[in-house]
Amino acid sequence: MLYMCYTKEGENDIMKHFTWKILFVLTVAFVLFGCQKMNQFTPQEVIKNVLVSEDDISYYGEVEYIITEKGEEQLNMFIKEWRHNEKQRLEIDNEGENIVTIKDGIDMIIYDENEQSAYTMDHLEMEQLYINPREELDMLLDMIKDTHDIEIVGDTQLLGRKAFHLVANPKEGSNSLFGEQELWIDKEYWMVLKMKSMSGDNASHLTYKDIQFHPKMEDAIFQLDLPEGITIENLDDQASQEEITLKELPSKMGLDILYIPNEKEHEIGTITYTEATDEPFGYKEITIDYKQQGLPLMTLTIFNLADEEILDEGMNDNKDALDELDDYAENVQKETIRRKKGYYFELDSLRSISWDEDDFSYSIDIIDPNVTIDEVLEWTEKMEHP
User: How far is CA 253 from the centre of its chain?
Assistant: First the structure.
């Protein structure tokens, strides 16, 4: 998103620096599947068993996670993972940047060794802010079971364990965000040991290099000993968040707020309201998720500061920052959006537009690669007050 958040001092840097890390932690930690024995299964039964399997499992694993675009590597991470039921420890190495995450079933602590800083947050609230890893995998499998032809191409051995090898290809005429998918699923624990996922020009590869089920784990593994002098900052204290209805928009943000109304081409899904009240940089934010035929389409984010003087100052700073983006002409271009000065940003698979109107800053992140910028601009012309 191309707008700037003005919260209490330091909060913007914290969230900007840690958003991708938190999201990644929640994404790669999805392998939580329960234990059953099996003989012969259809592809649909395998997918169903993964979706309904239990979360309680203990293991130690080492994972390589790679993202490529048009064949070029964009991200390469190596993760060590300890899990015992609801407890989890992740050690992430991203090209020399080291992150340690501890989840004890209630709270989550994130420690950045390079920055020498630590943060905590109720992991239940974090799952409301971001897609729960299990829900993310479930959502993917639930989507492809209807839009893809799925087949078991054979039994195989991974890390000395028996596994199913599944391939899912989009059905002819299906309108799916996802291309070919490959999954290698452990026959005993219904755990994904390897996955390749295609979406447009992007490919993600997740591969377990080592896996040990039910190893002996000391309690100390799920405790974090921080160096002296490091204070854990609680992100829960910085903002509150709740899911609201369309009717509540005016009471939360005021009558002047605009949104893209619900239509067949862009159906409203979840509406999330976030508020930070800490002086002097309080803010309010609305996020509306849109879907098309049940698939993620785009996200509209509406941002407003609680204090009008700070709002004016923040908007001016925001415009200055956006003007500086002219140096990146290949990624950013000026756009007229609703007869306002705005920007279109495109970098790799990220596409978004942003503009300021009245007391609000609007940003639309386009998720569906099949949607054009012209379509989105046309939808913005139909924006209305709730």
Answer: 25
Count of CB atoms situated within 10 Å of the CB of 117: 17
The two three-digit tokens of residue 70, written as one number: 């048009």
CA–CA gap between residue 131 and residue 359 (Å, rounded): 29
Q: Read off the tokens for 185.
A: 């699923």
Average pLDDT on 256-276 reads 91
Please answer whether residues 367 and 177 qualify as being in contact, where contact means their C-beta atoms are separated by less than 8 angstroms: yes
Q: Domain count for the chain, please give it.
A: 2
**Token pair for 255:** 């009558």
Last residue of a domain, one of 186, 216, 232: 232
Does residue 2 register a pLDDT over 80? no
CA angle 121/122/128 to nearest 5° reads 105
Tell me which residue range forms the domain holding 80: 11-232
Structure confidence at residue 212 as a pLDDT band (50, 70, 90): very high
| Percent of the chain whose pLDDT exceeds 90 | 27
Backbone φ and ψ for 49, nearest 5 degrees, come out as -65, -35
Identify each DSSP E strand in the chain by its residue range.
58-69, 72-84, 87-94, 97-103, 107-112, 117-122, 148-158, 161-170, 181-186, 192-199, 202-213, 232-234, 240-244, 267-276, 283-292, 295-305, 332-337, 340-347, 350-357, 360-366
Chain CA centroid to CA 78, Å: 19
User: In whole angstroms, what is the distance from residue 152 CA to residue 352 CA?
Assistant: 38
Q: Quote the tokens at residue 164.
A: 């199913």
Tell me whether residue 211 is exposed, middle or buried, using C-beta atoms within 10 angstroms of its C-beta: 0 to 12, 13 to 18, 19 or more: buried
In a domain, 260, yes or no: yes
Distance CA(276)–CA(357), nearest Å, equals: 21
The pTM assigned to this predicted structure is 0.57
310 and 205 within one domain: no
The dihedral through the CA atoms of 295, 296, 298, 304 has a sign that is positive
Radius of gyration of the chain (CA): 22
User: What is the mean predicted confidence (pLDDT) over 29-40?
Assistant: 34
Of 198, 215, 232, at which residue does a domain stop? 232
Q: Please indicate, yes or no, whether residues 85 and 188 belong to a single structural domain of this protein.
A: yes
